[in-house]
Design brief:
4-stranded antiparallel beta sheet, mainly beta, single chain, 354 residues, elongated
Length: 354
């Protein structure tokens, strides 16, 4: 799958009265009240929110926010606060910047910003705290807490192997495009795919014994409905549990176009025949089997039971097989269970040319 890199010019959405350019007499000026008065940021950088208000006739207006440092970006401005993103400091020395607040009828306010250099260490979390608990073979509980409660964000739980070859920017661009596509198809507002504040959700229909990433990034839309995001993404990795093993032995043979599987044991299993060149795209036959499970569930509204076998089985593949082509026939124990489901044996396989 190819992903097209998109670039967006991110502008601040002005939701409140605009600040003009004319300057009144000094005695008529309102003033900014700012908290904190000095912005301290550690070497890791990240997103920082500064609260402010306007005291005097200009109360309620929206400030213009600027910064004189290339390593500080203005993310969002409201009439009570603004957010900035500070790059990590790998210069080996402390550095300073100045934030400037201005507005028609309000005296300009300068806010000093200091970033330490310290040893760069992975922060506990930068913009989002991600917690994963209650992990089973097919599910987990996910809790996401944003550092800034005003930030809208999108999250998803993605199998690590599905992210192979994708950069963070590729992933964000892909998801933004998917949100736009699904919004158009279903006639929904793109905000219905976003979250605010703390979100606690179950992650279900996961593959057993597999590594997953919880992916979270900020996302909003401007007045022209263009996506606005910082490009930062945070991840939390976890691995689902391995299903309890079954004492099941499976023997495979091809009889013409039929796959015949002899089972020794009482457990259930799944089987299939796949072109060898397709198998080579996966890291293991276990991954082939899990992809098969995902495909069957997607086609049957989550139900895998129509493809489960017990005891000996025989299945015809005449509509799929082509003469002279190399194939892999495989079978593996599989248990359909909410908390202990998944592959229960190693994968048994044979190769053949039809």
């Amino acid at each position: 799958m190819k992903f097209r890199r998109l670039s967006y010019f991110v502008s601040i959405l002005l939701l409140f009265p605009s600040c003009g350019k004319s300057v009144p007499e000094e005695g008529d000026l309102s003033v900014f009240a700012v908290e904190p008065k000095l912005v301290n940021v550690d070497a890791n950088g990240g997103r920082v929110t500064v609260n402010y208000s306007i005291e005097g006739p200009g109360i309620g207006n929206l400030a213009n926010v600027e910064c004189d440092a290339f390593w500080v970006s203005i993310v969002k401005v409201y009439n009570t606060s603004f957010s900035i993103r500070v790059d990590a400091n790998d210069t080996g020395a402390d550095r300073t910047a100045t934030l400037l607040l201005s507005c028609n009828g309000v005296k300009d306010k300068k806010i000093p910003l200091v970033q330490g250099h310290g040893e760069l260490t992975p922060p506990v979390f930068r913009n989002f705290n991600i917690e994963v608990s209650g992990i089973t073979t097919s599910s987990a509980s996910v809790k996401i807490t944003p550092k800034d409660a005003s930030v809208r964000y999108h999250y998803s739980v993605v199998r690590a192997s599905d992210l192979k070859g994708m950069s963070d920017q590729d992933y964000i661009d892909f998801m933004v495009n998917e949100i736009d596509r699904l919004s158009a198809i279903y006639g929904t507002d793109p905000y219905s795919f976003l979250n605010l504040n703390t979100c606690s959700v179950p992650a279900s229909s996961l593959m057993d014994d597999s590594e997953y990433n919880v992916m979270v990034f900020d996302l909003d839309y401007d007045s022209e409905h263009n996506p606005v995001y910082s490009g930062d993404i945070e991840k939390k990795s976890f691995r689902t549990l391995r299903a309890t093993r079954d004492n099941l032995e499976l023997t495979l043979k091809m009889s013409g176009s039929r796959l015949v599987v002899s089972a020794s044991g009482s457990g259930t299993y799944i089987s299939d025949v796949v072109a060898a060149e397709l198998v080579e795209e996966f890291e293991s036959l276990e991954d082939v089997a899990r992809e098969y499970v995902k495909t069957v569930r997607n086609a049957n509204y989550g139900d895998i039971s129509p493809s489960l076998h017990k005891g000996n089985s025989s299945e015809d593949y005449s509509d799929y097989l082509k003469e002279g082509t190399r194939y892999v026939a495989w079978a593996v124990g599989y248990r359909d269970d909410d908390t202990d489901g998944g592959l229960t044996t190693s994968v048994f396989s044979i190769e053949f040319t039809f």
